Amino acid sequence: MNNLKEKITASLGGKSMKTKLLVAAGIIGIILILLSEINFDPNSKKAEVTSTDYASYVNSLNSELSTLISSMDGVGDCRVMITLKNTSEGVYAKNTENSRNDSSYNENNEYVIYDGENGDSPILLKENFPEIEGVAVVCSGGDNVVVREKIIQCVSALFNISSNRISVSKLSS
Q: Cα–Cα 20 to 30 A to 92, which of 42, 58, 77, 141?
């Protein structure tokens, strides 16, 4: 035990543990103060998927997946269609206040509002992109069982969806 204490004291340059903890607490305090100065402007550029962006998001996914799948051995010409469960979802900051009496429990939730240049608006904490519901792949090699299985495994791994939500078919000539 004493040997460990001596090693710690030696590694700290001979200064006491209390001094080092005090300095560390001071540094953490300064970092927290600097972080509080960051401007969380909800009107700044953020990763929102609006209705016009929604179509371009789906088209981008379709194009990238089609390029990836068509580069696989045996696939050939390929077309892809991805369906989404919903649109994007925003998670906003809330203040929650709980009060409890002997016979009742009350919870009050209010959104945190930011007074920006364009008026009041809630603070967006994060934006969840739409979830993939299903994928249809039509390709020249879609009748080959091995090719079909490789495509299903690839799409399942990319989008974390089950294989029953992935359809692979042969492209008609």
A: 58
